[in-house]
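Colleagues,

For the teaching module next term, I've prepared a clean inverse folding example: a structure given as tokens, and then the sequence designed for it. I'd like students to try predicting residues themselves before seeing the answer, so please don't circulate the second half yet.
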């Protein structure tokens, strides 16, 4: 191949959803509404946990991590997608494409590991209830949370160090609505076998190891619960796991095959539809699942939106207002307490992640310059 053909492109064109103008407007309205609902749901969960002392438990600390993660998870993808639906110029710079990919992979990998941590937390709570408070201390919770984010950041940096070496011989159209691994591997004009191998090995580690932890945790949980003599006791034990297990099934079922063989998945037209499920639909459903299937969260939500608002919201507002008013009230009552609750966990989390930013920036810079 000639030397001129080995130069990198300056930008890609994201084809997105090829539909009529009327359908594009409908998609913009639909995805925009889903995005706003996803942000609102996850922020409400964070606020509700913050302002309710009875939710200051490891299980809900990890739930807040999941909600915080998914706020950024959808924000990396959806705003750019909504812009591309409305405008004719669907270009994204090469550096912008890799940056979007880097953060998206970071959040996906972190969520895989976080779901495994949450399964381990449920295993300890059910199988070792007496030792659970001592084991799952605030320090250990902060370490586990920091470990999830660290693994996600490092995995993404390694993936991009290989993908950033690939060359793209001309202005390429990406048949997708965001920069994902599969299109970048497919449109490269150089040998991508090493990048594919690295991606496969990392996917095997980041996906299958947490999945095995989840499966083993639930096998042990089920065996322990079945030994409980009363039906009510068994039902109560299972109820604490049902929402998490539902989220695990949704997330893994929509991402497992896509990232096990990313290059092969690009050949199928259903790739974008599957991507919509795990980038847009699943983040919307997760908060609903935790609220609808978890009695503690439902009771705390009712309390926060009801009696606990008395005297804590601005004058002239009512607890019987519309949804936007309720959200404002939640933030109003949480603001003076945010600096108090879980400050120890947050400081520990910060101490555990010292130096990660420098590592990420150096690796991302390496990928972009290669």
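(Answer key — instructors only)
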């Amino acid at each position: 191949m000639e030397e001129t053909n080995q130069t990198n492109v300056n930008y890609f064109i994201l084809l997105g959803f090829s539909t009529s103008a009327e359908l594009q407007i409908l998609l913009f309205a639909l995805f925009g509404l889903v995005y706003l609902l996803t942000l609102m749901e996850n922020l409400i969960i964070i606020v509700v946990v913050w302002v309710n002392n009875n939710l200051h438990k490891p299980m809900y600390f990890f739930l807040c991590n999941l909600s915080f993660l998914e706020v950024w998870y959808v924000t990396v993808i959806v705003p750019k997608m909504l812009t591309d639906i409305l405008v004719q110029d669907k270009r994204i710079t090469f550096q912008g494409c890799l940056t979007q990919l880097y953060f998206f992979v970071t959040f996906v990998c972190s969520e895989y590991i976080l779901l495994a941590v949450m399964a381990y937390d449920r295993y300890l709570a059910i199988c070792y209830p007496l030792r659970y408070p001592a084991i799952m201390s605030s320090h250990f919770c902060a370490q586990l949370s920091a470990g999830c984010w660290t693994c996600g950041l490092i995995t993404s940096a390694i993936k991009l160090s290989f993908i950033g070496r690939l060359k793209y011989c001309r202005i390429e159209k990406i048949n997708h609505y965001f920069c994902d691994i599969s299109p970048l591997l497919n449109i490269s004009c150089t040998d991508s076998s090493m990048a594919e191998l690295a991606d496969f090995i990392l996917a095997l580690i980041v996906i299958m190891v947490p999945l095995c932890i989840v499966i083993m945790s639930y096998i042990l949980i089920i065996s322990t619960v079945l030994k409980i003599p009363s039906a009510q006791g068994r039902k109560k034990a299972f109820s604490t796991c049902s929402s998490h297990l539902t989220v695990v099934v949704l997330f893994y079922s929509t991402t497992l095959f896509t990232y096990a063989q990313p290059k092969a998945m690009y050949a199928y037209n259903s790739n974008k539809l599957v991507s919509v499920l795990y980038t847009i639909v699943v983040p919307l459903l997760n908060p609903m699942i935790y609220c609808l299937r978890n009695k503690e969260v439902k009771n705390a939500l009712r309390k926060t939106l009801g009696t606990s608002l008395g005297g804590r919201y601005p004058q002239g507002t009512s607890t019987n207002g519309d949804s936007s008013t309720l959200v404002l009230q939640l933030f109003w009552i949480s603001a003076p307490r945010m600096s108090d609750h879980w400050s120890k966990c947050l400081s520990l989390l910060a101490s555990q992640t010292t130096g990660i930013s420098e590592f990420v920036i150096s690796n991302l810079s390496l990928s972009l310059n290669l």
